[in-house]
Amino acid sequence: RNSRLVLGLPTGRxxxxxxxxxxxxxxxxxxxLSQATTxxxxxxxxxxxxxxxxxxxxxxxxxxxxVNLAAERIHFLDGAAADTDAECAxxxxxxxxxxxxDILILGLGTNGHIGFNEPAPALPAxxxxxxxxxxxxxxxxxLFGGDPAAVPxxxxxxxxxxxxxxxxxxxxATGQAKxxxxxxxxxxxxxPELPGSFLQVHPDVEIMLDTAAAAGxxxx
Length: 220
What we know:
Layout: E1 6-9, H1 16-27, E2 37-40, E3 42-44, H2 55-62, E4 74-75, H3 84-97, E5 103-106, E6 128-131, H4 134-139, E7 154-157, H5 160-164, E8 168-173, H6 179-187, E9 205-209, H7 215-218
Parallel strand pairs: 1-2, 1-5, 2-4, 5-8, 8-9
Antiparallel strand pairs: 3-7, 6-7
């Protein structure tokens, strides 16, 4: 209904099936992305262009090569930038210039991170550089030959305030490993020790789960 949507998009394993379905609908003429704009949530620091482990490489293979989205409408964080602080500030300006994000798709880490906002005593509001937790690196090892040690220790990520300013948020989580953190996100306190819990204060969030990820919510 709105062909000029500004979309925030994650990477990782969870959204791959969604991207393949979206691409299939574009290819069949059921959807049109020619006037849409996208912003990726995050990117590893220090990986050169063309590296298969870059989130940019992954989402390009799964989605962007298959859809009618103009290259100038696709926005990525440059994890290889010489000045990552300047790169983060540039990204915030680009999001603002696009009018903000209409729909932001999120995954969820087993430690409760959204984007690459890791649990901490305090969370940066805006796009920033972050040190990744061991569990997060292990969760992304598939992109680096299955070796968690090969996953970069740092990344760039949209901040919590940037995420919460999206007009609509859709969180997708699958698998038994996410059940506990999903329950805490929905029923627990809002705390920076579980970054996803901040979605409780957003006025328009939809959470999509499979049966395994919803197991904790099924308990009374």
